[in-house]
Amino acid sequence: MAKLWEGRFSKALDAAADSFNSSISFDSRMWKEDITGSIAHAKMLKACKIIPSEDAESIISGLKGIYSDLENGKLEIDPKSEDIHSFVEAELGNRIGTTAKFLHTARSRNDQVALDFRLYAKAQMKAVEGLLHGLIVSIVQKAKENTDTIMPGYTHLQRAQPVSYAQYLLAYANMFKRDLKRVQMAFDAADSCPLGAAALAGTTFPIDRQMTAKDLGFANICSNSMDAVSDRDFVADAMYALSMIQMHLSRMSEEIILHCSWEFSFITLDDSFSTGSSIMPQKKNPDIAELVRGKTGRVYGDLIGFLTVLKGLPLAYNKDMQEDKESFFDCLDTVKSSLAVFAPMIASITVNKDNMHHAASVGFINATDCADYLTGKGIPFREAYKITGQIVHWAIENGKTLETMTMDEYHTFSESFDKGIYDAVNLENCLCRRNSEGGTSPQSVKRQLEEFEFSY
User: Fold this and answer.
1) Average pLDDT over residues 264-272
2) Domains and CATH numbers, the chain
3) Which residue among 19, 61, 223, 277 is the active-site one?
4) Cα–Cα 20 to 30 A to 36, which of 230, 271, 358, 407?
């Protein structure tokens, strides 16, 4: 196939070099954006009287035909093409003849690929936003079902204080809500039109950049032609947002894996999101959560690899920037596939409320409430903390809990204790009293849930 740039050269590109140089195998996924951008460019060339009106109409009609044929499978992309731009232009020439050669007036592949990539990134950030919304809905629904479900909250992976399972789930919902904002910011970063920058210095033709930007749905245009063709910050922003999503999915996966183990038994994964062993018939493995956790390293690698490609690049466009797409596509595909499987997995989880409550009833996670009780009796908190620590030490050695200690046993540590201590260390009371804004009480959690209805 003829090269768009072959006029300067006296011999064909080496076959291995040609294959190495080609990007059609991956940038072909941007064919819709490439054709859409070309149609907008042709409309502008016509409106600005840069090319004859009838030639512009022939180009636009030909491009629409290529779009339709690719969409319905009548046309296949030629893998021998150098890139998607070359394929579309060559196919257009096959259909309308030499008139197709007018299309590239006032345009370079440099601003063309930047346009395609920005259009593609915008569309994909909207798709990710939709998947994130679905995941948040799934988490919030599960939280609504468990506002009164008590479980131990952890710090350092040690039982710390009683919390509700709803409060626990909403912590992750908040993470993904922040991810939504990052994805929206990535969309905004891509929402400037580079078309008209040409190779790097703009063009001598009287083009209307605002027209093409508006036609393609961009908020504005890239204000500097050199930056327009060399900027890939919007890709880095998108990949960072995707990496954060995958990190949050990985953190939640880690706890799902722990919580469905026999050692915890807090939840049961549905069979449709579990696998078995080829040798151990009793096994029910959380492979989906493990794969999500494992794929996080891959997503991070895509981001770091891409940032390394950009490091030290001189202005303006360099062929190194062809390496932006494969890493972005892999990062995007990995996160989208993880989100797509995660939301229904969360919805299918069975919560083992009794096991959670039993785990919360041991481990002295109500010790802080004991110290708070003493502080309410006028004892400085630091002294109350010390007394409670001594009580816990004694109770462990004597096989007692704060609920089962007698009043005489309490009085050996402080005469300030009365029967009110038993209400103070009751798990349900411990939960309900934490009614501060953002706290874990059922009332506070319900307020958080109400806020969520309007925040995503």
Assistant:
1) 95
2) 16-105 (1.10.275.10), 112-142+164-358 (1.20.200.10), 363-452 (1.10.40.30)
3) 277
4) 230
